[in-house]
Amino acid sequence: MMNSSSRIDLKNLTREQLVEFLAGIGKERFRSQQLMAWIYKRGVTDFDQMTDLSKDLRTTLKEKAYVSDWLPEATEVSRDGTRKYLYRLDDGETVESVRIPMDNDRATLCISSQVGCAMGCDFCLTGTFGFKRHLTAAEIVNQVCAGLKDGPLQNIVFMGMGEPLHNLDNVVRSLEILYDPAGLDYSSRKITVSTCGLVPQMAELGRRITANLAVSLNATTDEVRDRLMPINKRYPLHELMAACRVFPLPAKRRITFEYILIRDLNDAIADAKRLVKLLHGVKAKVNLIPFNEHEGAAYRCPDETTISAFQTYLLDRNIVAVRRASKGQDISAACGQLKGKLEKQQAEAQQNVSIPT
Ligand code: SF4
Asked: For residues 202 and 215, what is the distance between their CA atoms, to the nearest angstrom?
C-alpha cells in the first residue's frame, strides 16, 4: 500500500513542506497548489494524469516522489449503514477507520492515529494489543482520502485506534494537510481530536493548532479512573480538569467529555453529581456512551432506567448531555474490534494449519 523506495510520499507533506520539496528540485512555489488540487480535490495519484504540469516536472516527480493511495483490505457494513474499514500498511500492520452515517446524506469518519495504543485503558480492546507504532501524517490523511471514496464526510474524529496526543507531531501535521484550502479544505470546526488526558500535550495542541477537543473522562473519582485509565495515575482528575479550563477554545465551542457508562461502576447519581462539580467553569458538552459489550468484556452496560436517570440529572443542571447511539453494533463497532477479529481468525487459521492430521 505504501511505496517502500526512497521516494517521498507527497501525502506526508504540508503545503510548506511541499514548497520546500519543490524548491529542492528547482520548481516554483505555486506548483504546490496545483499538486495539492490534483491529489486532494481530484483524487489523482498518478503524475502522468496531472496534465497541467510540464512533462519535465512530471518526470522529475516520478523519480523523486509518489502519492500513496489506499483501498481497504476488509470492510464490514452494519445494518444501520456504519462501515468499518481495515487497511493493511506497508509493514504489514493494520489500522481501522469507521464511517458513521448521519441523518442527511453525509457521514462522520472516525480515524486512527497509531497502530495499537500505549495507554492501556481497561475497557478498550485496542489497549489490550499494546503499542506498535505511530501512524505517519500520510497514513492518517489516507484514511480520510479513502473514506471520501464512499461519499462526503461532514466530520472527522480522531477516536479510532491510538492516543492522538501521543503522536502529536504527526497529528498536527495531518491537521495542517486536512485544513489546507488548496487540498481537502476542512474547517477546524469539523475535526475533533480526542485524548485520554495527556495533560502537557493538551496544552501543546492548543498552542500549535485549532481543533475541537474531546476528553475521554469516564469516571468522577481518581479511584475509579485509575482503574479504568492508567494515565490517570500520572495526570489525576484535578490536573486534567485544570488543563481543560485553560484550553484555548474559539468562540461558541465547547470541550466534549466522553463518558462511557458502565454498570455499577460509574453510573450512579452520586457520579452524576460529582461530574457536575468537575465540569464547573468548563465550557463542556457530555457524550454519554452506554458501554458496548463485546466478547470477553469485563464490564456491562447499565439498564435503560439508570442511563436516562444519569442523563436527566445532568440536563436538569444545565449541562449539555447527549446520549450517543451505539452505531454498528452488529459489526465489531468498538475501536479495535475488527482488528481483533481479523487477528483471531488469522491465529485460528495458523493453528489449523499446524494441527497434524
Ligand atoms: Fe488507547 Fe483510546 Fe483505547 Fe485508551 S481508549 S487504550 S487511549 S485507544
From this structure: 10
Place of cell 483471531: 344
> What's the 296 CA to ligand 1 centre distance in angstroms?
17
Write out pLDDT tens, residues 242-297.
Answer: 999 999 999 999 999 999 999 999 999 999 999 999 999 999 999 999 998 877 78
What is the CA(120)–ligand 1 centre distance, in A? 6
Sign of CA dihedral 336, 196, 274, 253: negative
Domains and CATH numbers, the chain: 8-66 (1.10.150.530), 74-344 (3.20.20.70)
**One-character DSSP codes across 85-150:** EEEE-TTS-EEEEEEEE-SSS-EEEE--SEEE-SS--TT-HHHHH-EEEEPPHHHHHHHHHHHHTT
**What is 270-324 written as a DSSP string?**
HHHHHHHHHTTTS-EEEEEEE----TT-S--PPPHHHHHHHHHHHHHTT-EEEEP
Instruction: Answer whether 102's CB lies under 8 Å from 154's CB.
Output: yes
Residue 33: count of CB within 10 angstroms of its CB: 16
**Rounded CA separation 347/75 (Å):** 20
Mean of the per-residue pLDDT values for the chain? 90
Choose the residue to mutate in 335, 338, 339 for probing ligand 1, maximizing ligand atoms within 8 Å of C-beta. Answer: 335
Rounded to the nearest angstrom, the distance between the alpha carbon of 232 and the centre of ligand 1 is 13
Atom of ligand 1 nearest to the CA of 123: 5
Question: pTM of this prediction?
Answer: 0.90
- CA distances in angstroms from 208 to 70, 168, 176, 202, listed in the order given: 28, 10, 10, 10
Output the CA angle 91-297-260, nearest 5 degrees.
Answer: 95
